[in-house]
Amino acid sequence: MAAAVVDAVRTGEDPVPDERARAVGAGRGFALLLVITGFAGLLAAWVITLDKFHILEDENYTPACSLNPVVSCGSIMESEQAEVFGFPNPMLGMVTYGAVIAIGMGLLAGARYGRWFWLGLQGGTLFGVGFCTWLQYQSLYEIRALCLWCCLAWVATIVMFWYTTLHNVRNGFLPAPAGVRRTLEEFHWLIPTVHVAIIGMLILTNWWDFWTS
């Protein structure tokens, strides 16, 4: 140990390992979850992008998921909210969901990432779930239409976010009391389930007359 300290001082390195520099992998379950939710989001983004191209080529084109006045993907795709950043939103999803798949596959292969990487993934999924929440509000109360592929991307992002949060809390990258950590680990399925259920309830009540007619 003394020799290691001497060598560290000589080379100018910190003789005491920094906990924040610790590289951490993930269990097979979490890695598979990232791959599966990433593929679900990528599939949704891919289909929506193709339909967007078809609409641009033919203004009379009707997407296959436009089933009725409520479940109307075309209404969503033609709205201003569908191009928040100056290009179709699903193009952003194709990049980000693809990155999540790559991270999950790396974890399955035994990759280990540092604290900064995990916090970066946390920030990315937080942005994703926040953006999806904004899109949900726009869909329900401004555009007043639903896109089934968008709903798939919403669910994938929600699950991805909460399990990334659990992973970071479990490994100490996000500070949390021991009781909170134990509760999250024991009831890991509860928060994403409630989150998705709330969205489902809002969809149900927003178009209650239509669903029951």
UniProtKB/TrEMBL annotation:
Xref: InterPro entries: VKOR, VKOR_Actinobacteria, VKOR_sf
Keywords: Disulfide bond, Membrane, Oxidoreductase, Quinone, Redox-active center, Transmembrane, Transmembrane helix
Limits of the Vitamin K epoxide reductase domain: 27-168
Membrane association type: Multi-pass membrane protein
Transmembrane domains' residue ranges: 30-48, 91-109, 116-137, 143-166, 187-208
Compartments, record wording: Membrane
Record family assignment: Belongs to the VKOR family.
Record's protein name: Vitamin K epoxide reductase family protein
Organism: Streptomyces boetiae
